[in-house]
Amino acid sequence: MFRRDPEKAAQNEARRAEKRRQREEWAANRQAEKEALSQWRSAHPAEKTLNTAAMMRSWPSSKFGETTLGPIRGGHAEFINAGAHKGWTATRLVAGAATLGVSAAATGRKNKGAAVINVTFGNGAAQTYNVTPENATLRAANQYVTAFNALAAQLDSEAEQP
Q1: In sequence order, what are the beta bridge partners of 85?
Q2: Half-sphere exposure in the Cβ direction for 59 (13 Å, CA)
Q3: Which pTM was predicted?
């Protein structure tokens, strides 16, 4: 009843074979890129530390020493912590005492002080990031700046070597 057109079947098979070849080529390229990145990161451990600190925050992560804002090589970062911490204010303490702690538990502590990360990239781009005064975030910010500067120094020294 139905007859397949041999020419059309051959064209479809050729199209499927080409797509299969492209997928395999893409997968091989992706695997080679992953291996190259893994080798590069084993030689540059500060990048892994930098990316770990940047996770879940608005700080730029790096791949092969490049960020979305510019290269790390030739860059510099500084962490300015002007007494950032969480603290109780007099108003919140009074409200907590008046409501027997219910209000204090609901409102929590207030952010005090300020902390920022100033990052200058190798291409001259500069960016400032505000840091929330939570202990984990302050630790991550310090870790990020240390790793950024270590990676920038390593990349600079590698560029100077012949």
Answers
A1: 112
A2: 33
A3: 0.71
